[in-house]
Amino acid sequence: MKTVKEMTPIELASFVCETLEDNGIKTTLSGGFCTQIYSHGLYTSYDIDFINHYNEDHKTITKTMINLGFSHHDRYFTHPDATYAIEFPTGPLAIGDELIRATATIETDVGTLRLLTVTDAIKDRLASYYHWDSEQTLKQALMIANHNEFDLENIREWSEKEGCLHKFNVFLTSLDKVLTI
Amino acid sequence: MLLKALLGSADKENVLQYILARKKGYASEIASFFGTKSSQITKQLEALEIGGVLVGFQIGKVRLYEFNPRYFFLSELIALLLKAREAYEPELAERLMIAKVAPRRKNKPDFLEPIIKEQTNENS
Predict the structure, then answer these.
(1) 3-state secondary structure labels for all residues of B45-102
(2) What is the pLDDT of residue A146?
(3) Of A84, A101, A116, which residue is a domain's last?
(4) Is residue A62 part of a domain?
(5) Do B114 and A89 touch (CB under 8 A)?
(6) Is the pLDDT of residue B116 over 80?
(7) Is the Cβ pair B70, A95 closer than 8 Å?
(8) A102 with A16, same domain?
(9) pLDDT in tens, B4-57
(10) Is residue A77 domain-shared with residue A105, that is, in the same domain?
(11) CATH number, residue A28
(12) Chain A to chain B, count of Cβ pairs less than 8 Å apart?
């Protein structure tokens, strides 16, 4: 078994995700670290956000993380041999009003990482752009979209429900590849 | 307060009602409005931020909070708060609704307005 120091960032995330699952805590990777994975490293995040699906007791999470060698600082967990801060935002796993039922997985030597699908990772980044005009998260959405296949119609429908079709059109016209619905 | 049994704290209900009425708020002004300690309000604001209900923005020394537009139960929460506000002492409801006159760019979109409008229509 690799030590935390020997693990790649994805391996570390998969190790944490699987260990928590073994302890009854279902989590899914969300946020900027999904961008790092789906952009194939074009974007770097130092935060690993695991959505705690059912808001399971934080004490169990803390106990599990401490057993893995992490320290608890306010809302974050850090490890002396890792440069990433891990956080557990509250569930449910949703983007806006839409519950997320399907997730993706990545198998590594040290565990299975559950994460947002490409389409949902784009929506997750766009949500911050839609609500807070965050140009940075628009860029992240574009990085994911430019490197992966995704369901454009699904994103358009969701954007319409969010009342943000005008911003969806900014996203659409900013893509490297020309896509039409 | 009417939702204390549900929310576990009158301060939490106060915080949510204040932010619903004023769109934004920070600890000392909310505490001053309700005549309570700022530390108690800060505790509730932080808990609501950790829970994803509110988002906070640091502006100088002040942390300003507003509803998190990405909160999954936002429209349901607003419906509940609006219904509770209807049943408050008229004086308190009125005081909450007297919004401070703050400069706002003309036609600036407000994400809460459509939700409040929809919930108000459903309640009437």
Answers:
(1) HHHHHHCCCEEEEEECCEEEEEECCCCCCHHHHHHHHHHHHHCCCHHHHHHHHCCCCC
(2) 95
(3) A116
(4) yes
(5) no
(6) no
(7) yes
(8) yes
(9) 899 999 999 999 999 999 999 999 999 999 999 999 999 999 999 999 999 999
(10) yes
(11) 3.30.460
(12) 20
Domains of chain B by range and CATH? Answer: 4-123 (1.10.10.10)
Residues comprising chain A, all counted: 181
State mean pLDDT over B61-66: 95
Are A87 and A101 within one domain?
Answer: yes
Cα–Cα distances in Å, from B90 out to A109, B61, B84, B86? 63, 34, 12, 8
What are the DSSP calls for A76-95, one per residue? EEE-TT-S-EEE--BS--EE
* A74: contact with B, CB 8 A cutoff: no
Q: What is the mean pLDDT of chain A?
A: 94
Is A179 a member of any domain? no
Nearest to A131 among B51, B70, B72 (CB): B70
Q: What is the pLDDT of residues A72-121, one digit of tens each?
A: 988 899 999 999 999 999 989 999 888 999 999 999 999 999 999 999 99
Domain that holds residue A48: 4-116
Asked whether residue A108 falls in the same domain as residue A126, the answer is no
Say how many domains are in chain A: 2
Q: Does A161 touch chain B (CB under 8 A)?
A: no
Average pLDDT over every residue of B58-85: 94
| A85 and A14 within one domain | yes
Structure ipTM: 0.76
A173 has a pLDDT exceeding 70: yes
Residue A89 near residue A51, CB atoms below 8 Å: yes
Tokens 């923005």 belong to residue: B57
Residues A65, A73 contacting (CB under 8 angstroms): no
